[in-house]
Every structure is written in C-alpha cells, then in structure tokens.
Write the structure tokens for this entry.
Amino acid sequence: MCDQIEPESIPRVIVSEKARRILENIKRVAVHSGDLDGICSAAILLLLSQSIKIDFLSVTEAKKAPAIYDLVVDLPKIGNAINIDHHETNYEYLSKYNLLEEKDLVDPNAPSATELLAKYFNLENDDHIRKITNIANLADLNEFTEEIYLIDKVIKCHSRDPDALMKIALAIAKYGDEFLKDFWLRSQVSRLEPLLEKCSKFSSYIIDETIKKRDSRAVVLHVESGIPRVCINDILHDFLEAGGQAIVLINTIHENDIYCPSLATDIGKQSARISMRVRKANINAGQFLSLFGGGGHKCAAGAKLSIEMLPEFLLEVFKLLSMEFGCVLYLNINKKILSNVFQSEL
Ligand SMILES: [Mn+2]
C-alpha cells in the first residue's frame, strides 16, 4: 500500500470558489501512467483534494476503460468524463465525432496536460503549481534536465505499479521541482544508475551503425530481446540528439526485466509496441500511427500492434520514411547480437 498522506506535509494551495464547485463533483480520476505529464497532473490533483481517487492508465487501457471517471487527464476521453488533454489525435477524434463538450479542455497546442489542468482550476498564478507545470512542460517538450531524466526513468520503471506512481506523484506534490529531496525517489535513482550506463552504450551502438557508419538519418529498429525496457526511450532520444531525423522502434521484448519486474508482463506474445519519433520533418507521427490504432503528437507517437499487422506496418513505414529521407535502414537487435557486439563489456 502507498504511504499515508500526512496533510501537513503537503503545501497548501488556494482553491478558487469556481474550482471548488467543479471539484465537488470529481470523485474518480484517470491520468496517464507512463510519463511525467500524467504524474505531474496527479500531483496537482493531490494538492487540490485529498479525497479524489486516482487511477493510472496507459492509452491502450484508457481506450478500453469503463465509464467510471469524472475526469480524465492526458488520455483520450472516457465515457462522459471531463477530458483535459493535449494530444492532437484525441482532439481530432473528439472534433470529428462531435464529442467535445463545454466542460472539456483539449488543446493540442498546449505543451502539457498538466498546464491545462492548472488552467482549468485557475491555479496558473500559484508558484508551487507553476514549478510542477514546468516539469511536465519540459518533459513533454523533450527538454530534459538531469533531474527530469532521472525521475522519468523511475516512472518508466514503475509504470505498471500504481503504489509507486502514487509515491512519485506525492514527492512532486510535496517538493515541486526539488522532488529528489524525497528519500524513496533518491533510492530508486541510485538503484537504476548502473542500468542507465548500459542504456547509453546501447544508444551509441545504434548511432554508430546508422548515422556514423552509414550516414543514414532514418531507421526502423526492431528490438526483440537484450535491452532493458527502461532504455527504450533513451535510444529514441539519443538517436535524434545525434542528428537522426526519424526513428521507429518496434518492441517485441517478452523476457523478464530484472531491473523493473513490474514491466515484465507488459505486452502479450501476439503484439508489438511501436514508438515513433521524428524531427522537423513533413511527417506527422501521430497521424501515421493512428492508421494502426495508435496516436500521439506530431513528433512523438505510439501504437500497439498485433503481430499479424507487422508486415503491412513495415511496408507502410518504409514507404513513408523513404519518401521523406531517401535511405532508411533496418536494424534488428536481440540478445545474441548484443553479446557478440559487447563481448564481456556489459
Ligand atoms: Mn502529455
């Protein structure tokens, strides 16, 4: 179970009369489980009310969730809940089917859902709230500070563990951008540190094989095994930082994760998780992946695909990327390949 919340240990936030009236009708909330924007949204909700029940859901879970929520943040609308979100694909979907209501706040131009949540409850001028909003903005704009990088890793590691996510949200609620003052969070960071060193070696290998040796800026990467799940985002991020223009990662990892065991049962044997990142291109990642049941933003998007769809997905993704970038490389990664490359290094 999560730690008991001690009311005096959480900073007080002044809630306007209008916000209080809305809050009275909010008993149960769903927020995005996998990233800082969702967790920062949860932190603000903890500051607003101690009695709201918060569920952490992935996008896939949200799409199948029962209509039991009063408010849904950084996720697609569920049933008749108030929806606060900034995902372009969700906005387009809601507009297309006339599902956007007066009570919703869905703005694809907002840097984060946390910022929209703060606006919704008239908290924009609160200094403590502003610090929390800023964390979410930096994370969603991919402008990671060292601290944000570390807390993002702890979130990714525990994205299937609601008690841990609640601890992280509480640390942000309490300490704002000084969240590493939280003892538990710090202990998790030091536990993950040796793993993060490994992640950077994997990234370097991929960048060497594509950008450096073959001068290609677009890659489709299929990871089958051998890479800890927490490294996945680093690979995407590091590839673009090294001058890459587009990376599509197909994740069919099934093995247990020794560092982050709660992630082990993440995907079924019959599915592949797709992550796509593009930089300043005429490609809309969110729109492209929405053709495969996924979605997200222009530059960053995701989807969950059944294995049978993979051949067709590959045809479409190679067509899309090669029209924009010319040369597109395919790189397959598994345990065997990695052990040949790194020998005893890891
Ligand atoms: Mn977000």
